Amino acid sequence: MIVGGGALTTSDAATKWLTETLPIGEILFVRALVVSIAIGLILWRSRSFGALRIGRYRNIAARSVLAVVSTFLIVSSLARLPLNEVIAILFVGPLFVAILATPLLGERVGIHRWLAVLIGFTGMLIMVRPGTAGFQVAALLPVVAALVAATRDIVTRRISTAETSVAILFYSMIALTLVGLATAPFGWLPMDAGDIALLILTGLLFGLGHYFIIEGYRYAEATVVAPYRYANLIWAALLGFVLWGEIPSIWVLAGTPLVVGSGLYILLYERSRRRL
After folding, report:
1. Can you tell me the mean pLDDT for 83-111?
2. Which terminus, N or C, of the chain has the lesser number of Cβ atoms within 10 Å?
3. Is the pLDDT assigned to residue 20 strictly greater than 70?
4. What per-residue confidence (pLDDT) applies to 1?
């Protein structure tokens, strides 16, 4: 889980670097294309194309749309905000999952989870600082991205019994490739060899990151390994400092513990409740 998080955060850092010279749609087109080709090659070598069979097209379409929207929002956030701030704010995602679990999954949400959600959102508000002189509209992008990603994750949970993980990821990447390609008429720029190499690396790291995270969930319970995803904050702080000289603001340092603590509490509370 730690290695997977490091790969995904490094992919995000490389993507942020590329947004300084290339349009977002062009970046996402190449990155998604690399992942799609990699999945296709793996399936071809293993002769397991049956894994791409679709149970319900509506399931795949809904998940793909949410994946495209969340990805565009995340990359737009990376282009405008420090890496450590984006990653920290995105961790409100599990809190949105807790909120949406009732209307979308029919799960009962107790007072303990609601209190944790309230504390977590307090931490998010500290980082975003709405209504203050330091507020940036761009800071709302990762918040909306976290909400869309939470909806995507809940849809994924609902359809995972009918669709394979490979199919869900592959068709989401195909959708992202096509949407990225559709932005070509709006001002793509020429890429040099360095840009292409970095884009390929970004795609490979993105795919490897998801692979290691899936393997983490395969070898241990979600409540055991999920907390290690918060190591992404360490990766983001290190990469942000090395590449851009970013130092987390006092607001990020103050809000992050509340967001992380509330997320961990929800995980641990759900784990203890299952044991009972």
Report:
1. 84
2. C
3. yes
4. 86
Q: Coil, helix or strand for 56? A: coil
Segment 179-199 shows an average pLDDT of: 94
> Which amino acid makes up residue 117?
V
What's the CA gap between 184 and 180, in Å, rounded? 7
Give which of 70, 157, 65, 144 is closest to 105, Cα–Cα.
157
Q: Quote the DSSP letter at residue 103.
A: I
Residues 6+ apart with CB under 8 A from 261: 119, 120, 123
Burial of 3 (0-12, 13-18, 19+ CB in 10 A): middle
On the 0-12 / 13-18 / 19+ scale of CB atoms within 10 A, 144 is middle
Of the candidates 55, 19, 35, 15, the one whose C-alpha atom is nearest the C-alpha of residue 176 is: 35
Per-domain residue ranges for the chain? Answer: 2-275
Angle, helix 83-90 to helix 57-80, in steps of 10 degrees: 140
The residue with tokens 């055991």 is 224
Contact 95, 262 (CB under 8 A): yes
pLDDT at residue 156, as a whole number: 85
pLDDT of residue 71: 94
Residue 33 contacts residue 242 (beta carbons within 8 Å): no
| Spatial separation of the C-alpha atoms in residues 42 and 40, rounded to whole Å | 5
Tokens coding 57: 């097209």
pTM of structure: 0.89
Do 91 and 103 meet the contact criterion of CB atoms below 8 Å apart? no
- What digits encode the pLDDT tens for the residues 234-260? 999 999 999 999 999 999 999 999 999
Query: Is the Cβ–Cβ distance between 58 and 159 less than 8 Å?
Result: no
